[in-house]
Write a structure and sequence with these properties.
- Helices cover about 35% and strands about 15% of the residues.
- The chain is an alpha+beta fold.
- The chain has a domain of about 110 residues: Aspartate Aminotransferase, domain 1.
- The protein has a six-stranded antiparallel β-sheet.
- The chain starts with 7 loop residues before the first helix and ends in a 9-residue tail after the last helix.
Amino acid sequence: MPTPPTTHDDYLANLPQDQREALQSLRQAIKAIAPLAEECISYQICAFRQKGMLVGYGATEKHCALFLMSNSTVAAHADDLQGYDTSTGTVRFQPGQPLPEALVKKLVEARIAEKAAGASYGNAKKPKAGAAADTKSVKKSPAAKQKGVKSAASKSVTQKSAGKKPAAKKAASPSKSKLTPASKTKRAKSPKST
């Protein structure tokens, strides 16, 4: 098994000439558009980091690809991407028909703007608290996925969609607000009065 690439040059050196030339051209275009972006290898593809993952590129036996790492960028530029094979955050193309530099510029600049606005991988900027949302657009954070826990926003939306109101926070009574250090660590439950 060949060793995984550690640099963009290593990655490109292992490709057939037509793919190498198409991706080298794409690499140069990305570097010109995002000069502050740092080259890296992520998930065994060539990627650029700028305030997190910006874009990436790679090749398979059948095609080359520009990984925009954003569903919303692909959706927002659907008209520009007609004729290309697209999927979640990815634009595929043939080495003999590389992406036009003007299109690459438009897409990478959109990703830079999206990152500057605070968008995370694959998603547009999250709506402000109280904004309408549906359960389909709420996703678990990577840490929550590992623990099987939904985020607070996800729970709130799920409760709303089930016709339930989110639990209201109870105001602390004056007698309970003055806890001693020992009672802060463990509060004994008082028996319920009937």
